[in-house]
């Protein structure tokens, strides 16, 4: 986007200095970890949630769809609406909303209450994620901004791969309600940390909604958003229903599923940092590798996943590849719009969470209509499409932030 267009939609305020430091960055990373864990928590708990609330597995998957849709809408809307408020106050308020949403989900006597709880989680998640990405530059010296931004993003990536197995383990040790209580309490702990460690962060500028939307027309941003949409939709079409797939294809029991998801999660954490290093040099090359590996792995689960051992190997490779999606695509978008990072981040959050919602929805339709293994073929096909878009679309020359 041309600089003049951006200036038409951003009103600059005087720069104000604030205390800076890594403890504050760590608190923000804790916030991103908690919101994304809250969003994805139902994935490993679909079967017991459905049984307790009297709904099908496909309907239980809507708990993820609802949160993703609300997060997709709230992120680009909250960015301009909350532009005048101190960021520390906003983040603390959003974490309070998240805590209430998780505790309400734990109490849910029926599916309608669960839906209301997941709406609250979506609001908190979308707002925190959109705001957090732009804070590193205000908390550490300029030479450390890249590392601090990666740490904040790592909260998202680690939650993406560890939140599901953690929820599954808690659900196995106690029950699914205890998993939601645990994350609700974690949200309150992070709220206290944010209030104690963050400096005052007055709004530096206001971003109008029109400026956020026009940024999506920039070719590199548009390509990056398309890759996000395809990879995340494909992943969640398959991964939302990974538990019933493992039960049907591999014959894995509840305890073994928790172990397999943990294998996936550990591999995903490694994938986050490996891909982060690669994306700093070339986001396109990194995403080409991720898309190819993800497509092959997901498609092979119904074919080679007949034993727990082979399923575990496939889940490890799956986690290694998907663990790099968040940091690689975020690096692509922020490098594509360095003059409008908060606006780019809000678009990223909107598309990412809309894709989570769409993936869970189409995966549910495929699972209910053609069987759970069909979701794996769907996920693989979308990853192949992402590979083509990455190869053919406009990309930033490097991932330097």
From TrEMBL:
Record Gene3D superfamilies: MFS general substrate transporter like domains (1.20.1250.20)
InterPro entries associated with the record: MFS, MFS_dom, MFS_Efflux_Transporters, MFS_trans_sf
Domain Major facilitator superfamily (MFS) profile positions: 23-398
GO CC annotations on file: plasma membrane
Membrane topology reported for the UniProt record: Multi-pass membrane protein
Top-rank lineage group of the source organism: Bacteria
Cellular location(s): Cell membrane
UniProt KW keywords: Cell membrane, Membrane, Transmembrane, Transmembrane helix
Protein name as catalogued: MFS transporter
Source organism per UniProt: Kitasatospora albolonga
């Amino acid at each position: 986007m041309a600089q003049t267009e951006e200036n038409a939609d951003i009103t600059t305020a005087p720069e104000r200095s604030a205390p800076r430091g890594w403890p504050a960055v760590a608190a923000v990373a804790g916030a991103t970890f908690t919101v994304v864990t809250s969003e994805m928590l139902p994935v490993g708990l679909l079967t017991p949630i459905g049984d307790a609330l009297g709904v099908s597995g496909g309907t239980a998957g809507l708990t993820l769809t609802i949160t993703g849709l609300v997060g997709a809408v709230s992120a680009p809307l909250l960015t301009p609406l909350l532009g005048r408020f101190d960021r520390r106050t906003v983040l603390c308020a959003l974490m309070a909303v998240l805590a209430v949403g998780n505790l309400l989900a734990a109490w849910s006597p029926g599916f309608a209450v669960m839906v209301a709880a997941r709406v609250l989680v979506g609001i908190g998640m979308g707002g925190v994620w959109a705001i957090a990405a732009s804070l590193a530059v205000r908390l550490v010296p300029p030479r450390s901004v890249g590392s601090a931004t990666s740490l904040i993003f790592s909260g998202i990536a680690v939650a993406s791969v560890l939140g599901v197995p953690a929820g599954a383990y808690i659900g196995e040790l106690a029950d699914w309600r205890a998993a939601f209580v645990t994350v609700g309490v974690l949200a309150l702990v992070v709220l206290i940390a944010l209030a104690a460690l963050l400096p005052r962060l007055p709004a530096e500028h206001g971003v109008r909604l029109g400026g956020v939307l026009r940024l999506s027309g920039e070719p590199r941003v548009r390509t990056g958003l398309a890759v996000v949409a395809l990879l995340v939709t494909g992943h969640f079409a398959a991964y939302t229903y990974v538990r019933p797939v493992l039960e049907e294809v591999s014959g894995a029991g509840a305890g073994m599923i928790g172990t397999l998801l943990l294998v996936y999660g550990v591999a995903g954490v490694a994938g986050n940092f490996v891909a982060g290093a690669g994306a700093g040099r070339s986001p396109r090359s990194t995403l080409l590798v991720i898309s190819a590996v993800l497509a092959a792995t997901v498609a092979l689960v119904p074919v080679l996943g007949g034993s727990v051992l082979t399923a575990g190997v496939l889940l490890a490779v799956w986690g290694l590849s998907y663990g790099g999606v968040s940091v690689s695509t975020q690096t692509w978008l922020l490098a594509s719009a360095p003059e409008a990072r908060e606006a780019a981040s809000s678009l990223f959050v909107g598309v990412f969470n809309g894709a989570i919602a769409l993936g869970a929805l189409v995966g549910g339709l495929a699972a209910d209509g053609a069987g759970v293994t069909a979701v794996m073929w769907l996920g693989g096909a979308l990853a192949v499409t992402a590979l083509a878009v990455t190869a053919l679309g406009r990309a930033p020359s490097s991932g330097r932030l």
